[in-house]
Batch of 2 targets.
Target 1
Amino acid sequence: MLTLKYIKEFKTLSRLALPIIVGQLGVILMGVLDNIMIGQLIDKNALAAASLGNALSYLIGSLAFGGIPVVAPLFAQREGKEKVLTLQISFEAVIILSVFLTLFSVLVYFVFGIFDQPVFLEKPAKSYFLLITVSNIPMFMFLVFKQLLDSTNKAGVSMWITFIGLGANGVLNYFLITGVGNVKGLDLDGAGIATILTRVLMLVLIYYFIPLNIRRELTGGVFANIRLHSDRIIFQLKMILYAGVQVFFEIGAFAFAVIMMGWISSTALAAHQIAVNIAAVMYMMATGVAYAAGIRVGNSLIKTNALDTRIVGSVSFLLVFIMMLISAVGIIIFKSQLVSLYIDDLEVQNFAIRLLIVAAFFQVSDGVQAVALGCLRGLTDVKVPALLTFIAYWVISLPVGYFLAFKLGLEAEGIWYGLLIGLSIAAILLVYRFYSLLSKREKIAIT
């Protein structure tokens, strides 16, 4: 009987996760497409500048990108008017957060020189950073609507919108980077503007797929009762920030790795961007499972059955383990072909291949820690995981990476070995946290 429950959950989770995974792949493929077109249509220095601009923008934005998915389990636990109210409050919280993140990004723009990057990279990286920061605002709003649709088994809508955006991004990239007729191309800035236009398009499309009654209440209700709902808005902001901090620490580790790569060379920086981009495609598959797991854990809490929650968690870990193991093998087999898609520069290609081999080894750890965070979000456990990720990435991963790279002379590979160690420790700590919480719930249920 128990085995049948596991099989049933595996099927349910897979059906829920598949469109979310495809949608997540669509999101990351925009970044892949950007990097391929920047590398092929411009040069390796533009790719290195894009790497720096993207890393810093995503680092700041990760507080929202990583935190917004926490609202999906909240939607899953609510019905009717309460679901609509939760959407309003989520939207208000995200708008407030967007304002603060944008203001902070503007401050970073004016002090960009503190990152001590090569002069020829700093100017284009600054400009690209600002454009991507602007594009994050419509993307945050898109993600709130996406969580609502995903939690109501309508993940296919956001999936198709994402792929429409992918196509639009490719066309806009080409014309804005290279130019049209006598109109000169904008090079790297063109790619940034294309991202802004694409994300606005995606927001408009998903808005019209939200049920009409919800749109009406949302349009007239956002900030209309802010005083009445201030406690819930603050609570939602805290939830988003705590969950976002978990992702911030991981993304921050990778962003600081970018800065350290800049201390080595522009070739190392470009190679790092390629390797991270390829690894990120596989990581997005894991986040699709993580979001689905968070929703399923949230659903299981309604039944107040700790065993159901344990089954959801175990099946989620098994599914992501299989997926990431396959992706690791794929990276090792096709590493040369994957790298050659981005750039023709042989020096950068060889550099990136060495980093990809390390990336293959941390695929499983990366996937498992992502799903563990998703399961913990479903339990609305966000504070302790934030501390655990800080320890794994900033207390252990980055210092070890720095030591290996600059003290032992391993350079770029040393930085990536540090990331491998951090991801593995995070996976162990977060999985342990999930099962220890379940054990406590089971003991309470028995008594």
Target 2
Amino acid sequence: MLPSQPVIVSNVFDKNSYADFQGKFMIELANMLMQCKEFAELSLNDKLLLYQHTKAIFSNIERQYSSIQYFGDSMEDYRVLHDDTRAFDYGLETVETNDTDNEKFVKALPLFIKIRDKFISLITKPMKALKITQFEMVYILFQILWTVESNSELSMEAIKVAEKVSDKIADEIHTYYKCELRVHNYAPRLLKLHQLIDGSKAVESTKAETFIISQVYNIYDFQVSPEHFGVIH
């Protein structure tokens, strides 16, 4: 999701505007997934389970991909699109917030820095080095979506569909590398794409730990209102 107008680069974290954009992103992602026939034909419960599993992991990668499309792939540039009007510069030493509880935010900064550093090392730098194509982004999305081994709540029908689609995806990425890119030994690149997915999972794990620590010790309230988040119908 590229911005339709010039963005403002800032070091000010705006929790509510970020949540607003995430709500838009989630609705856009849900609509995109519904264009996939195999996904659309699943039961509502299966769709929701797959969607919930996919959205956060893919969001990290999508934000960096869109940021590279917008700002370029310089390894010295740590600007990441925050929403559709602003970007956040991870290269800046100081971070601020427009939240009224700024004192608590300052206490939470070490937690933010931990997330930032992991994002840069596991997502930003690898993606800039790889120069991922649009086709590979689609591959990443569907690889996240249809990798279901750890999702024990899915129906047997959904698991069978996932296995079938995964085989199809493997064939399509093989054809893409061999016929379009003329890359014969693509295994190392494919491994790096999978490492990106694992990296995004690690970032999400760090975020979850951060939110729990913040709640337990009353450091900073990361919560946003439910209206920011969309659902699949």
